[in-house]
Amino acid sequence: MIARLRTHLLVLTLLFPGLTLGADELRIAVAANFVDTLDDLVSVYLANNNKSNTASTAEKILISSGSSGKLYAQIVNGAPYDIFLSADSARPARLEEQGIGTPNSRFTYAVGQLVLWSPDAGVINQQAPHMDVAAIRFLAIANPQLAPYGMASMQTLESIGAWQKLRDKLVRGENINQAFLFVSSGSANAGLVALSQLIRTQQLDAGSYWLVPETMHTPIVQQALVLDKSADAFANFVQSEVAKNIIQQRGYKTPE
Question: Of 16, 169, 194, 204, which residue is most buried, by most CB within 10 angstroms?
Fold first, then answer.
């Protein structure tokens, strides 16, 4: 499994070495496409808490990222996460149906945007058919069986009549981050990636791209589910206007 574990600490003991601190640990499972945006949200969240809390508390946040399918399987098998930020709505809803999580805590935090992108100019067109199939050496997508961005990618290729033409040229990543890595590393010369990735890496204007309309695929509605009430405060923050502004700046839409 490809996953990343990041730890953010408010290390008040460095400032007050004589203090015995209580530690609240928040464990977040997040879809791979959103992990960098989550880092930004966590930084703001902790900064706000640092201003409002007394020096007798410390907060530790553990972030595990991977495909939504892999994280869902971990949660079903008892992984001790406090909140799940999925790249779809189906898996949080399924957990609810299974009696996992806090009742009535599921909410939409972002809507993903898909981009057909190549670092090379002229490979991707703004107008149909949107790509020069002959110029595609390999096309990277996320695995449709594991990742919502992968399912949206497959639906997009079917919508523009390119799925059959490109099936033998597809390189499937476990998640959208792997798909992006395949393109940015040169293993594939084009891919269906997240708009947020191109904004984060400042590559939106490099090469050629087409922003895929939502009518081409099932909307990538990303929902969260609170698994333990200890995550209530963070869930409320993610739904705040401050958080929504950050999410929008990173290339996502947010619910009104």
Answer: 194
Least confident of 76-90, 95-109, 120-134: 120-134
Residues 6+ apart with CB under 8 A from 1: 66, 70, 174
Pairing of strands 22-31, 57-66: parallel
Give this prediction's pTM.
0.81
Segment 107-125, tens digit of pLDDT: 999 999 999 999 998 899 8
CATH of the domain at 68: 3.40.190.10
Q: What are phi and psi of 22, to 5 degrees?
A: -85, 145
Pick from 156, 140, 33, 141: nearest CA to 88: 33
122 and 195 both lie in a single domain: yes
Other Cβ atoms closer than 10 A to 185: 9
Range of the domain at 89: 4-111+220-249
Is residue 229, in this structure, part of any structural domain at all?
Answer: yes
Q: What tokens were used for 155?
A: 């639906």
CA dihedral over 172, 174, 175, 180, signed as positive or negative: negative
Strands, E assignment, 174-251:
190-194, 208-211, 220-226
Q: Are residues 104 and 120 in the same domain?
A: no
Looking at the domain assignment, is residue 56 inside a domain?
yes
**190 phi/psi in degrees, rounded to 5:** -160, 160
Q: Which of 55, 91, 126 is nearest to 227 (CA)?
A: 91
Structure tokens at 76: 């079903």
